[in-house]
Design goal:
Layout: E1 7-18, E2 21-33, E3 38-42, H1 49-57, E4 64-69, E5 72-73, E6 81-84, H2 96-101, H3 111-124, H4 140-152, E7 158-162, H5 170-186, E8 191-195, H6 199-205, E9 208-212, E10 219-224, H7 236-260
Parallel strand pairs: 3-8, 3-9, 6-7, 7-8
Antiparallel strand pairs: 1-2, 1-4, 4-5, 9-10
Helix pairs in contact: 3-4, 6-7
């Protein structure tokens, strides 16, 4: 995973047709993600975070502005972008190694080389020894690690994560945050863009936290996380940064409420 990409979003606007009217969802989004960065995007429900991710994946093309990967406009899904969802979406009738190997379908790899690539990625996510196990025999955290391995097996330039830990219990989620950071580091810092509602998770994992406003979604603020890794949640600087981000949401909520009155 030596090659990662630069993502540039310039003057992005997105609207949906609702009852014949064009309803703005995203407005004037400008964002640059450097190779190897870990970026978290947070914001209130309905602010367009998932829509933004879908546009980066290439699932939608009707928008104004441009989304560039290594200077080339994204026009559809591609192997240079891996995706992990909140639900692991593993096929229950296939073993872990066969699920991970699905990411190599259509690629010209010899059978031996294919097995080696799958094995390397199972080791990357700490699932060696579970090759023949089926998804229903895995814990939630292990299933998400398998999903991450499947997304990384093609060596994408960017890994897009849509609430990847949102379905896990609190203790497993904290453990998986540590595991995700290790995967990112072992994978030579593949560029990661994660949507999350968990501010502490964003501070723990990210190089930058992108805060979005409510619909129409705009980038309200980008906060760099200049804390040494591994991060300690109880440290003063960690808690101070977390409170700073939470305060952004508090002020926004007060503003919306005052308008409503």
């Amino acid at each position: 995973m030596e090659h990662t990409g630069t993502l540039e979003i310039n003057n992005l606007n997105k609207r949906f047709k609702v009852n014949g009217d064009a309803t703005p969802v995203l407005e004037n989004i400008n964002l640059t993600v450097k190779p190897g960065e870990f970026i978290s995007i947070i914001g209130p429900s309905g602010c367009g975070k998932t829509t933004l991710l879908r546009l980066i994946i290439g699932l939608e093309n009707s928008y104004e502005g441009e989304i560039l990967l290594d200077g080339k406009r994204i026009t559809g899904p591609g192997l240079n972008r891996g995706v992990v969802f909140q639900d692991h979406r593993l096929l229950p009738w296939l073993s872990v190694e066969r699920n991970v190997g699905l990411g190599l379908e259509g690629k010209r790899n010899g059978n031996g080389n294919r097995k080696q690539i799958v094995q390397e990625h199972l080791e990357l996510v700490g699932l060696q020894g579970f090759e023949k196990v089926h998804p229903n025999q895995l814990s939630g955290g292990m299933a998400q690690r398998a999903a991450i391995a499947r997304a990384l097996v093609n060596q994408p330039e960017i890994l897009l994560l849509d609430e990847p830990l949102g379905a896990l219990d609190a203790l497993t989620r904290m453990y998986m945050q540590q595991e995700l950071e290790k995967i990112w580091q072992r994978g030579k810092h593949v560029t990661m863009i994660m949507i999350t509602h968990d501010v502490e998770e964003a501070v723990y994992l990210s190089d930058k936290v992108v805060i979005m406003s409510s619909r129409p979604g705009t980038i309200k603020k980008i906060i760099p996380v200049e804390l040494a890794r591994p991060r300690v949640r109880a440290d003063y600087d960690f808690m101070k940064l977390k409170e700073e981000i939470l305060e952004e949401f508090h002020l926004h909520a007060e503003k919306v409420f005052s308008y409503a009155i």
